[in-house]
Amino acid sequence: MTVEEFEEFYAQTVTRLTGQLYVMLGDLHEAQDVVQEAFVKGWGRLRQLDRDGAPEAWIRTVAWRLAVSRWRRVSRSAVAWQRSGAPPPDEGPGPESVALVEALRGLPAQQRRTLALHYVCDLAVEQIADETGLSASSVKTHLSRGRAALAHRLQDPRIEEAPGD
C-alpha cells in the first residue's frame, strides 16, 4: 500500500470505523482514541495491511484490542484505588445519552461487539467468527441473546400491553 493509498483509505474509513467502535465501546472519545492509535500502528505496517487484503478489518481489530488493553489497565487501576481508598464519586451518564447506547452498554462486551460487527459493520456471521476468533455458532448465540436483551431493554414503559396479550 502506498502513502497515497493509505491516505485515501484513512479518509474513506476513519469516520465509519470510529462509529463502529463507538457502538462497540459506548464511549465516543475512547473510540476516537483507539481508532487513531490503530491507524498509527497501520501506518507503520503498510506492507502488512496490503498483504492481509482486509485493512479495514485489521484496523478495527487493532482498535478493539487497544480498547481491551485500556480496560484492563483501568481495571487494575481501580483495584489499586480500592486498596488505597475509594476514588471520588463518579457521576452517571447525563441526560444526553441515547437509549440505544445505554442499552448496548448493559450487554456483555462480547454480545455488544458481535451486534456492532453484524449491524453496524454489516459483517456476516462467518466474517465475525474470523475477526473475533469465535465459532459461527457462538456468534449466532451472541446475536440471538443480544437481540433479545436489547428488545427487552428498549421497550417503552409508556406503552401498555393490550388486555389479553
UniProtKB/TrEMBL annotation:
Residues 10-76 form the RNA polymerase sigma-70 region domain. The keyword Transcription applies. SUPFAM superfamilies: Sigma2 domain of RNA polymerase sigma factors, Sigma3 and sigma4 domains of RNA polymerase sigma factors. The keyword Transcription regulation applies. Residues 98-150 form the RNA polymerase sigma factor 70 region 4 type domain. Keywords: DNA-binding, Sigma factor, Transcription, Transcription regulation. It comes from the Bacteria. Coiled coil: none annotated. Transmembrane segments: none annotated. Belongs to the sigma-70 factor family. ECF subfamily. This is RNA polymerase sigma factor. The lineage of its organism: Bacteria, Bacillati, Actinomycetota, Actinomycetes, Kitasatosporales.
